[in-house]
């Protein structure tokens, strides 16, 4: 009788693990088909990156909008709202204020328009890594060929407009963990098609 209970408990645990694995794979984003054309790949990226991008925590919300392709140039707007004890100039903490008991929370609303020519992205340097907060997210990092500053951006904030030269060599996408691997491979596939069409 005791052995039967042990076997029953083990079978129950195995069943629960199988159900959990099935639920996790059901939530995973289906990968882009390996034979997808450039148009199909771009449509897939716009749909799935838009749906899986961004997060919201107590004091930080990041979203994407206006995601589209013009040829092989991917453009989008990242919207961020956050509250903390940072200075009004960009992201630099105010000296002697951050963490002080008299410090006040400051609310920010920032948006950044980005233009990425996928022909100038290095497919071998697409990286996928975990985010510490929130934990159910990953970061997809794109880097340009030879680390040249070819990604254009225009960043504006609530308190001040802040922008450097308006070009850089990397950009990143915070995405749901369940979609990260498929999106990274889909971007890599699309970059390959764009570079082949050159």
What do you see in this structure?
This protein is an alpha+beta fold and 198 residues long. It folds into 2 domains: 1-30; 32-196, no CATH class. It contains 3 helices and 9 strands; from the N terminus they run ααβββββββββα. Strands 1-2-3-4-7-8 form a 6-stranded antiparallel sheet. Strands 5-6-9 form a 3-stranded antiparallel sheet. α2 packs antiparallel against α3 (177-196). The model is unreliable at 14-25 and 86-98 (pLDDT under 50).
Characteristic key phrases:
198 residues, 2 domains, globular, 6-stranded antiparallel sheet, 31% helix, alpha+beta, 3-stranded antiparallel sheet
Share of helix among residues?
A: 25-40%
- The counted number of beta strands is 9
Overall form: globular
Roughly what is the average pLDDT, rounded to an integer?
Answer: 80
Give start-end ranges of low-pLDDT stretches. 14-25, 86-98
Number of domains: 2
DSSP strand (E) fraction? Answer: 25-35%
The termini sit apart by 72 Å
Radius of gyration: 21 Å
Q: What assembly state would you assign to the polypeptide chains in this entry?
A: single chain
Task: Note the total helix count.
Answer: 3
State the strand order across the main sheet: 1-2-3-4-7-8
Structural class, please? alpha+beta
- Biggest sheet statistics: 6 strands, antiparallel
Order of helices and strands: HHEEEEEEEEEH
